[in-house]
Amino acid sequence: EVQLxxxxxxxxxxxxxxxxxCAASGFTFSNAWMSWVRQxxxxxxxxxxxIKSKTDGGTTDYAAPVKGRFTISRDDSKNTLYLQMNSLxxxxxxxxxxxxxxxxxxxxxxxxxxxVWGKGTTVTVSS
Amino acid sequence: xxxxxxxxxxxxxxxxKVTISCSGSSSNIGNNYxxxxxxxxxxxxxxxxxxxxxxxxxxPDRFSGSKSGTSATLGITGLQTGDEADYYCGTWDSxxxxxxxxxGTKLTVL
Lengths: 127, 110
Hints:
The complex is a heterodimer of chains A (about 130) and B (about 110).
Chain A lengths: L2 E5 L2 E3 L5 E8 L7 E7 L5 E7 L8 E3 L7 E6 L4 E6 L8 E13 L2 E9 L3 E5 L2
Parallel strand pairs in A: 2-11
Antiparallel strand pairs in A: 1-3, 3-8, 4-5, 4-9, 5-6, 7-8, 9-10, 9-11
Chain B lengths: L8 E4 L5 E6 L11 E5 L6 E4 L13 E6 L2 E6 L8 E9 L4 E4 L3 E5 L1
Parallel strand pairs in B: 1-9
Antiparallel strand pairs in B: 2-6, 3-4, 3-7, 5-6, 7-8, 7-9
């Protein structure tokens, strides 16, 4: 069974740091592109960023609100995805979901969708 | 501020059909594929539609997707009380080089 399990959430003060982990199982993690999506309390979904597989370059892209503060990385030997969050702000308070991302070009258009989601981990930034 | 625009809510009676719209621009929906997600209360989102109109294995054919120009539509027929959820559209924005979602639409089955 394909499974993603996030961990590492908690309460942190503004300006602080936190590292989230996502343990993957049931599929070939090293071949997968992965992403993080967050959802603030009572709000909609917000894309945080993505990381390509190492065979596709292993590069990352981020949403504007987190660029320069958040870093996505992966350890294929541990089948684990990470989200390092620095300089946290109150507006970063959200449930953070880890997902498998399908992204590519088809007939000159990009397809982009997430077919497997973890249950999420809650991050609260408050003094 | 969401990249894509959805109505905040829609409602219909059990057994009826409902459509949910998703409006964007040429840099996102106009030139890229759209996906749709269902989020039941208290749970993680679930993929319903990908590449505009394809259904993953296990998604009933009561759910359908279409796209025209810079807008996309999710259709749900034979509404059931279990369909009450928030629905989100998603796509890639080529100008922003970033993923984007709509603000979400709450479906109420009366």
